Amino acid sequence: MAKIYYVGDWAILTGPVFAETPFYHSPKGLDVFNYGRWLKEALESDGRHQVLSIPAWDFYNKLGPGDYEKILSDYDVFIFSDIDAKLFQLAPSFFDREKFGKKILTFPDRIRLTVEAIESGKSAMFLGGWYSFTGEQGKGGWGRTRLADILPLRCLDYEDLMESTEGFSVEATPPGSKAFLDFDFSHLPPLLGYNRTLPRPEGQTLLKIKETGDPLLATMKVGKGQALAFTSDPAPHWGCNFIFWDKYQEFWLHSLDLICLQKD
Predict the structure, then answer these.
(1) Is-above-0.85 flag for pTM?
(2) N or C: which terminus of the chain carries fewer CB neighbours within 10 A?
(3) What does the domain layout of the chain look like in residue ranges?
C-alpha cells in the first residue's frame, strides 16, 4: 500500500461577472472544482493505495513550520500536477508587512526538501498542464529550479504548450512496449495537449506523442527513489477524453507500480 500526497488539479471559478455600472462588477457565483478526482479515484480503485488530494492554495498557505517535512516523512509517493514552482519557493509571510524588520524572514526550501526526499527513497509523479514543466509563458518554472535535477525529462527554455483541438495520439517506445505490455494505445482517446520536453540520457522514455515524437511518459532512478514524468494532463481540459478511457484506472495503477516496484 502506498500513501500518496497529490498537489494540484483544483480550480475556483468566479462568475458570471456583471458590470452594471462603471464602478462595480458583481460576481454572481463561485464554484470550486476538484479536477484531480479522476486520478485520485483511479489510484484508489483497487484498494491498495490512499490518496490525499490538496489544492495548490492549501499547499502554499496552510503548511506551517515543519509541516512539509512531516508530510515528506509520512507519505510514500508525491504527485505534482499543474502547479508552478513559486508554490515551493515563496511563503505567505514574505508578503506580511507586519513581520518586516522584526526578524529575519527565511524558511526551509521546499524544493531542496522535495529533491532530498526523492533521493532518499520516495517516489514522485510530475504531471502536465499549463503550470507544469516550463508552462504557459514560462509560468511553470520547473526547469529553473532543482526540480530539474530529478525530472526524467528536460524542460524547454521557452513556453512549452503543444495544443490541438483535433488531439494527439500515443505510441509506446520499444522499452515502453515491454513496460506497458497489456496496453493498446491505439484505443487511447486523443489528448488535447501536452508540455513539450526533451529526453535526457538518465531517463527512459516509455511513451511518446505519435505525431511529433515528443516524450509523453518517462521514468528515472533518482538516488534511492524514482521519478515519473507524464507531460499531458490526467484531468480536463487536455485530458477531458482521456479520463473516460476504459483503461484509465489501470493505466495509472500500472504507472504507479513502475516507480514503486522498481525501487525494490
Answers:
(1) yes
(2) C
(3) 3-261
